[in-house]
Structure formats: structure tokens, C-alpha cells
Amino acid sequence: MATNRSALLGAHLEKSEPSELRPILTSLNGDNSWLMSFPVPSGEGATRPNPRKAYYHIVWDPWFATSGVAVTIASWVASIARGIESKAARADLVDHADDPQELMVDAILISLHYTDHLHEPSLRQFDRRIPVIAAPEAAATMKGWDYFQTVVPMKDMGNDGSDWQALHPNGPLPTWLTPFRLRGKGELNFATALVWSRGFRGEAAEPVQPAHEALWVSPHGMRMDPPALQAFLRDVTKTVHVLAMLHPLKESSLWGRQTVHGVMGGLAVERALEGPKYWVRTADAVFSYSGLVMLRVRDVRRTLDWGLAEEERLAGEKGEAVVKRRPNLVQIDSGDSMVLE
């Protein structure tokens, strides 16, 4: 379970060596806005933007209610990152001289060009010097704002997923952090993989070997048959371990066509990934809609227990074996954090 941010982070950082730091997820709105804090790999101090920081902090899809609230939230996000760094410094993990003018958010990542992901009033509250990595359609829109100094489009995985490192967007991101998109059947049904590459050392005489872990984020879910997903499962998972899957439980439909593949889609992907350590609920708020078109949008709340029972029922109808393993589903409430061990 996720828990109080300050206590959790203090307990983790106080007992860690720099090489033992783990990624941290902080929920920013209780839905699909996140602060993703990735530890800077050992030996990378010379190449990171700020060698005094222990983490590289990415804001994912910031979406807050009004511009007035966003002003407060943007400062709050920076204070969360600053708090993480201050605790790392107090634990003697990094040298740190507090500078109130220092940028604490290192990058912003936008996964989709729809307004609940690409929310201009919220985004304009962040410092324009923060680099943005965005889905190509969102990047084109943001460049038209003429606000952020650096906007770089994310790359898409093709049918051959063997060379995922070639999908690094270059530009502002460090070489050890690679986000890329997996396109699905519809523009809503995609996934984003964020691969964190770190070095680890066995015996002192052995060279440092790379290890790759990923966050796999699909806010609306996706079917299993898109070529990009099949390429990821076939090739990328040979070298990349999916540590956490961020995926909703709810289902949604528009005019009778399913647009959010909730718990059943998540279970299918979770099984195919052979069990991420965490299934983190994201984009799971159930809304009521208004307006002529929006009245045709329907959200249905689902639970993991319902999905497991349905999975067993469908397998029985087909005469197939049932996977009994229960995913480790976690809920991170707004403002709380979780260390991904």
C-alpha cells in the first residue's frame, strides 16, 4: 500500500546507499497526473543536469481544475521534488545546497493530445525552461503555444521492438531514461513505456552491466493484438523488466464502442508481461457526462475481484487453464507516494 509521503520517503532514503535508491511514484491529482522520480544511476553525476540531485523528476500529464489551482499545484509539485532531494541530502546520499531558484522538475511528459492529458492552463504554470517530451500530436500543439523553450516529440515503437534503445528521444533527456509510445487500434488505446537503465556492479573486478526496468503506462488500456504491443512482448521484455503497470480498472464506451479496456484488458496485459511487481491504478475516476454527445459516454466501475471472476468464467467456457495468480494492485491517493522496490 502507498502511505504518507514524508514518512515513507524518509524511511527509504535513510537506509539506502546511492546505488540502492528506487523509483518513486507520487500521485498529483488522484487520477492520471504523476510525479515520477527516477534515481540517477551511480557514476552518472557528470552527465545529469544537476549533479547535486539524487533523482530525475518527471511530471506526467499534469491536469488540474483551474488556472488558479494550477498556480498552487505547480509550486506544490516542485516542493515535493525539493522535499525528496532534501531528505536525500540529509541522509548524506548527495551533496546539496538549497537554492530556491533551482528548477526541481527536470522534465514534463505528455502522453496524449486530448485536454485531460494536454491541459494548457496547468502546463503554463510550470517554468518554461523545463523540457517537454510529448506524443507527436501533442508536441505539434505545444510548439504552437510558443511557451516552452524545448519540446521534443516522443518516438513510436514499430513492429520490430528489438532495438528499443534507438527510440530515445535525444535532446534533454539523459541517456539512461527512454520513453516511447506503443500505438494501439485507436488513438485512445496506447501505452507508454519509460525505461530506466542503471548500472550495477558484482565483484569489484567485474565491469558494470546494464539493468533495465520500466514503467508501463496505459491510461485507457489497449487490446492485445496491435503489432507494437506484440513487438514489446516478443523482443523488449527479453532485456527490460516491467516493474510497474499503470492501468485503470474501469471500463468506458462511446456510442456502444469500448474506449477504455479496464480490468479485463489490464489482466490480459499483466499476464502477458508475466507479472509486474505492481499494478498501480491510474485514470480510474468514474465520471458522469453531459451534453448531447457526452451522454453517449458511459463509465462502468470495475474491481479486480470482478475481473478475476470474469477471467475464470471465460477460461472455463473455452476449456482453458485459469491463471490463479492475483496481481499486486495498489492505490496511491492524491499527494501520497510509493517507493517501487
Automatic annotation (TrEMBL):
User: Which Gene3D superfamilies does UniProt cross-reference here?
Assistant: Ribonuclease Z/Hydroxyacylglutathione hydrolase-like
**Organism domain of life:** Eukaryota
**PANTHER family under this entry?**
METALLO-HYDROLASE/OXIDOREDUCTASE SUPERFAMILY PROTEIN (PTHR36142), METALLO-HYDROLASE_OXIDOREDUCTASE SUPERFAMILY PROTEIN (PTHR36142:SF2)
What's the protein name? Metallo-beta-lactamase domain-containing protein
Q: Which organism is it from?
A: Apiospora phragmitis
